[in-house]
Structure formats: C-alpha cells, structure tokens
Amino acid sequence: MHVEPPDPANPELSTTRYLLRSLLPIAAVLLLLSTFIIGPFGFVAATVAWWLVQRKF
Amino acid sequence: MPAARLLVRAEDRHCVLYHLSVVAAFAAAWAVWLNPELSGLQGFWHKAVFVLVAAPLLGWISGIDLGVNHHNHTHRPIFRSRLLNTWFERLWTPFAGWPAKYWTHYHVAVHHERLMQPGDWTVRLRKPDGEYESCLRYQLRIWPWRILRNFPAEVRAGHFDRRTAAVELLWFVALYSIPFWIDPLMGLCLWLLPHWCANCITMGRGMYIQHAGCEGWLEDEQQPHSSTILHPFFNATMFNIGLHATHHDFPGAHWSELPEIRHQVELAKAQQQPLDQ
Predict the structure, then answer these.
(1) What percentage of residues in chain B have a pLDDT greater than 90?
(2) Which long-range contacts (CB under 8 A, 24 or more apart) does A49-57 make?
(3) What is the mean pLDDT of residues B105-131?
(4) Which of A32, B86, B165, B194 yields a CA-CA distance of 20 to 30 A from B20?
C-alpha cells in the first residue's frame, strides 16, 4: 500500500516567521513602554540605537 | 481552532496580530503621554523630544500596517465573514489616518486598474513643466492634499459609491476623534502627526520607489511596470511587498505565495530564453 508522505508544515505559520514579521511593531511597543523605566531621553537613545541596528539587517 | 474558522487563510492570523501590535503601540504611546508622573514626560522639552521620536516610530509601523498589511486584505479579504471584514476594516484603517474602503478604492480601483495611466493619481505625477515630480514633492503632496482633492472627483464620477463614502467617513470621524476627545494635544502629537509620518514618509516613499522610473512600460510592455526589492529582511518584515512586480502581475495571489510565484515565473522565463535565441 502506498502512503503519501505528510505535507511539510507551512513555514509561514511558524512562530519564528511571525516574530520576524511582527518585529517592527513589537519593538515599537517595547521601546514606547521602556519610557516608563528609562524616561523620554532614554527612549530617544534606545529608539535611535534600534534604528541603526535594524538598518544593518 | 476558532481563528482558523474565522480566517480565509491561516497565514492571515499574522495580519490580525500585526494590526493588534500597532494598536498596542499607540496605546503604549498614549499611556506614556497620559501618565507623565510615571513616564517622566513632564515639561515642554520632555514631551517635545518624546513626540519627535515616537511620531515617526508610530508612523513607520502604521504605514506598514496600512500600506502593506491592510493592502493585502484589500486584494484578499482575510475573514470569511463579510461583516467581520467590514468592522475590522473600520478599526484598521483609522490607525493610519484613512476611512475604511477609501484606501481600498485608492489602491485597487485607482492604482491597480489605471496603473500609471493619466487617471492614476496615486503615483508620481508630471509637473507643469512636463518633468516628473521628485520624491520629496510627491511625499509632501500625497496625504492628505491629493487625497482630499481627488476623492470628491472619484465620487462625482461614480467611481466610488456615494453611500459607502458617506457611511465610512462618518465612522471614521467618530473613531478618529477619540484621541482628540481624551487630550487634544495628544491627538495632534501622537495620532495625527504619526499618520502624517505613515502616509508621507513610510507609504509615500514606498509608493514612489515602487513605480518611479517605470513609466516607459506604458509605451513598451517589455519594460518593468514596478520595481522589485529582494532584500530578505525587508520582505520578511513587509509581507513580501518587495516582490511588487509579481504582485501587480498576480494581484489576487496571496502575499505568502509571492516568493514561489516569482520563482516559477523566473524559471519559466529562463526556460523560454534559449527558445527565443
């Protein structure tokens, strides 16, 4: 009897893909909330650092 | 699984979650603004510095949320239920400064159907001297000015349903005014200003580079009608929008299928070439 191999899992549904695709809004939420801890000037420094880092990807 | 029953495609749960992340980002910014004793946002300079960076940050993600994420939904509605699509749209497009259905008309009926022809006012236009406008000029004029000037004409010409335009504008005004009711200055700084950034910086620049220089396609269809960006990080975080030429060739294709479709098209072209020679 011939048995069809199971379909490979859809890579688009993986947590990794989701996290990568949502990286920018997730980072924005974390950066904005970080203001409560590091203050507005800390927020500015962290956001500029994030901008420079993501440009290298 | 409930989500699988609600959505047409399982992949589109990412579209929903992306939008909810954008909503969370606006909520976070407003929480910072409305709780100055906790966030340290006390005094003019603290607020000015925060807004100067938070507005483009929010504009960056809300521009993608509308121009890429909601864009996919305009071609392939994500929910099975028409009612759910309608109401999710009403809570989706205001987060980038647009009433529901307006952007769909702008993109599908104006841009796709009239691609770069005289009626396509979504792309760069010619200046009075005949030269194409620069990216900066385009960015500064597209939102809200070119939108406000052209939508009444679209309605008058019968291209955009008058009742839809009125109903969706009403819902938009009701929802869009909420941040202004909470705090008018917050509404300006962390709602309207981010939407200017979303439309003029993020989407404006994106829209410009997708078609600028491709106008020769109108005369010669062998030329490309759209630019293609193959950068992996760009496409991974932008729902494959870099494959824009493929998207225009196959506008009904799901965003998750664009890389495979492009691969197949390139393969077919490569196989065709030796036959042509």
Answers:
(1) 95
(2) A54/A23, A54/A24, A54/A27, A54/B233, A57/B233
(3) 96
(4) B165
Alpha-carbon distance A34 to nearest alpha carbon in chain B (angstroms): 9
User: Cα–Cα–Cα angle for B222, B225, B226, nearest 5°?
Assistant: 135
At residue B225's C-alpha, the angle toward residues B224 and B231, to 5°, is 75
Residue pLDDT, tens place only, B206-258: 999 999 999 999 999 999 999 999 999 999 999 999 999 999 999 999 999 99
- Whether residue A6 has pLDDT greater than 60: no
State how far the Cα of A7 lies from the Cα of B252, in Å rounded to an integer. 24
Q: What is the pTM of this model?
A: 0.93
Contacts of A31 (CB under 8 A, 6+ apart): A43, A46, A47, A50, B57
**Interface with chain B: mutation pick from A26, A32, A48, highest number of B CBs within 10 Å:** A32
Closest residue to B28, CB basis, from A10, A12, A33: A33
By the 8 A CB rule, do B146 and B106 touch?
no
- Across the interface, of A13, A17, A35, the residue whose CB is closest to B39 is A35
**Between chains, do A44 and B239 touch, taking CB under 8 Å as contact?**
no
**Cα–Cα dist A51/A45, whole Å:** 10
Radius of gyration of chain B from its Cα atoms, rounded to whole angstroms: 20
Q: How far apart are CA B73 and CA B104, in angstroms?
A: 9
Do residues B55 and B189 touch, judged by C-beta distance below 8 A?
yes
- Interface test mutation site (partner A, options B65, B197, B237, max chain A beta carbons within 10 A): B237
Instruction: Quote the ipTM score.
Output: 0.92
